[in-house]
Amino acid sequence: MSDAPLLAELGWIEWCALPSLGIPLLQAKIDTGARTSSLHAEDLEIVDQGGRHVAKFLVRTRKGVYACECPVKDERHVKSSSGHEELRVVIETTYVIQRVRWTIELTLTDRTTMRFPMLLGRRAMAGRFVVDPSRRYVCGKPKRKFKS
């Protein structure tokens, strides 16, 4: 796998993986209106491990529930599309779509009321992709699981 090519095409929803978190497959809404990418996180707990903060949380998808653990990169105030501001934990992880792999920042939040467990925002896509909002699953469904 290589770094993302410039200006590959995506639809408004795509299959992806977060192999560093142990999530082999999930659906992400591709949202050019959102600056920040976010991931559904349940039972979020921040623990101190050897002097660094680590986020422990569950990610629930249609394919299963995954127990995840990742160092905390930051905490930021994020304003939702409804105008509600929330302080969120930020992590950095590997994102894979089709055969393209790169590192992105994700904020962790409760997306229970949302249709998809992940939202890929424009910071993560900048200079890599163009989005055709009339299409979905342009990249297709992966035929294999991704390695971390």
TrEMBL record:
Q: Which residues form the signal peptide?
A: none
Give the Retropepsin-like aspartic endopeptidase domain ranges: 10-141
Q: Name one Pfam family in it.
A: Zn_protease
Tell me the PANTHER family matching this sequence. ATP-DEPENDENT ZINC PROTEASE DOMAIN-CONTAINING PROTEIN-RELATED (PTHR38037:SF2), ZN_PROTEASE DOMAIN-CONTAINING PROTEIN (PTHR38037)
Q: What is this protein called?
A: Retropepsin-like aspartic endopeptidase domain-containing protein
Q: Which organism is it from?
A: Botrimarina mediterranea
